[in-house]
Structures are given as C-alpha cells and as structure tokens.
Amino acid sequence: MNEDQVKGTAEKAKGKINEGVGKMTGDTTQQVKGQVQQGAGEARKQYGDAKEQVKKSQP
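Above: the chain's sequence. Below: its structure in token form.
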C-alpha cells in the first residue's frame, strides 16, 4: 500500500463519520460534507491503486 491509498481510505472513513453525525443530528450540511469527503477519499485511493498497478507492471 502506498501513501495515497492509506490517506484515501482514511478520508473515506472520516467522511462516513461526518455523514453519520449529520444524519443523527439532522444537519444536512454535515451529511453533504461527509459525502464529499468520501468521494475525495475514493478518488485518492483509486489514484494510489493506479500508482501501485504501474509500479507492479514495470520490469
């Protein structure tokens, strides 16, 4: 695992928490913030996954 994969996964987890807190408190802004964080985290994780694939495919 590379740094982007780790940070992406962590960002997704933070987003999940923020979304859950927003749902529990009825704060739609918090929910949306959590969803955006999850999307950003997923993008960073996928970028890290792609870097790993390139690294593995090089001789």
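The mean pLDDT is 96.
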